[in-house]
């Protein structure tokens, strides 16, 4: 049963928007990695991978914030001990760890290589793409758990 308050509905909407924003960011990053893997030119590489921090990718960190707010304001049907909530949290922890420890450092490596005279080699794009695939897979598992709510 879903809580029937305006505050809960607004939190739910915020949660959905944050999840969709996370999906969009990961799809754009995967698309850029694919372009690099196919051997895009140096100008396109520099446009796709500017040599700066990727704050957009960190929108994923808002997913558990809004999710836990939903659990806190939800009724008895939404408890932290629910399996689907635990699956979502586990997926987020794995996703956040992989994002910060693997994917974003790889993206910075690509950006540094793209800033050089020869650009980044396609192998870096393939590696970054595989890393993003892990993130997308973890997010997909969490989304399925949230939708199914077993």
Blueprint (SSEs and pairs):
Elements: H1 6-37, H2 42-48, H3 62-73, H4 83-115, H5 122-148
Helix pairs in contact: 1-3, 1-5, 3-4, 4-5
What would you say this structure looks like, in words?
The chain contains 5 helices and no strands. Helices cover 74% and strands 0% of the residues. The model has no long low-confidence stretch (mean pLDDT 93). Helix 1 packs antiparallel against helix 3 and helix 1 runs antiparallel to helix 5. The longest helix is centred in the middle third of the chain and has 33 residues. It is mostly helical.
Summarize the biggest pleated sheet.
none
Question: Roughly how many Å apart are the termini?
Answer: 13 Å
Low-pLDDT stretches are none
Percent of sequence in beta strands: under 5%
What does the oligomeric state look like here? single chain
Globular, elongated, flat, extended or rod-shaped: what is the shape?
Answer: elongated
Give me the number of helical elements.
5
Order of helices and strands: HHHHH
Features of the shown structure:
elongated, 150 residues, single chain, mainly alpha
Provide a brief overview of the structure.
This protein has 150 residues and is mostly helical. Helices cover 74% and strands 0% of the residues.
